[in-house]
Write a structure and sequence with these properties.
6-stranded antiparallel β-barrel, hydrolase activity, hydrolyzing O-glycosyl compounds, Tachylectin-2, Chain A, Lipocalin, GH43_arabinanases, hydrolase, 2 domains, mainly beta
Amino acid sequence: MTRLTTDPTTWGALNAHDPTVVRGDDGSWYMFSTDAAVGIDEIPAGVHVRTSPDLVEWTFVGTALDGVPGPAAALTGARGLWAPEVVRWPTSGGARWHMYYSASTFGSRTSVIGLATAASPAGPWTDAGPVVTTTHAVDGHNAIDAAVVFDRAGRPWLTYGSFFGGIHILPLDARTGFAEKPGEVGTLIARRPASVDGAVEGAYIVYRPEEDRFVLFVSYDSLFDTYSVRVAAAAQVTGPYVDAQGRALTDVTDEDPDAVGTKILGGHRFAGGAAWIAPGHNSVFRDAGRLFVVHHVRRADDPARHEAQIRRVHVTASGWPLVSPHPFAGYDAERLDASEPVSGDWHVIRFDPAERGVVESVRLPIVAAAHTDGQALTTPLIVGTPDGDVVLDAVVFGAFDPVAQRAVPAFSGLDAEGVVWTGSKAVAA
């Protein structure tokens, strides 16, 4: 096992947990993440900040705040901050930046979502105080894991919550960034049954004008080993959010706790590559018209170690956002040398909603009428399995294969049961 250095400037994307990514007016990318690290004596506190010129190489530059702000520390006893959400905030005097951070302790509902503001993601950041608070002995919901979405009219909404009482959404005051009605819990938009300890958190909503609907990303199960990312969509920001099979994320049962929510990413391993577990707590961002998710993940052979990965998001013909099977390695790295047929042998992964472990890729034939030059292309795919052919509503695109060390065609798609398949075209030896 590799012991990580105590020098954070050498971490890169290692030790990033619950990440969010924004682009500043200076052209730099900024990643904000939980105060977390392994293998070091003292973890810097105050929201970890990294910068990158290209979304690939990241440099730790410090913390946004000088430790846990006093009011949040006094209420919760937290020694670090969790799951920051950073968003460009429109004002009459020009855009500013808001950071919503969480302060809590593991397993407790005595929690605070606080607000800090700055003129730039580079800071300096000034704490403005608590936005939502909960108390373990009183409240059934939990004030952590904040995210902000603007509705069609530009009204800001705060999504938050975790295990305990599920995911809620409430309106924010567009001028101050605080809750319109202090003390309001908001509308419940996602939950899990008691049989899995209500295990849902890390919610993030993005509005997609292309389909004129809101897409909710959430993480199911344990951040330590079984996280997976699920999606659902709604016509209104307050829901109801339904998965690809039309099932609402609030309509769950103890008998089948994994059925609801379209699983787009989970533990997996491609032949010859690393086994990744517990991908989750993602946020979503755009680079011009390109959509990305950033999430943390762990190595199956060293599960204490966590790091951030960024993946391209591609959308099927039916409007469902799915993620690349491979982490983003740069635009040039995913360009194919030449157009080629989609048909051929592929390394394929099926994200069974009930599977909490590592899914191994299987080499299977795929048939399609299309050719690909690496640009995203929606097309039906026919996957030949030992149990018969499976037809997918898929999108094919270029991606960098870390095993083959080259750009290859990749795909993600949905079958008739709403199960996501993803894969990477096999490279001839």
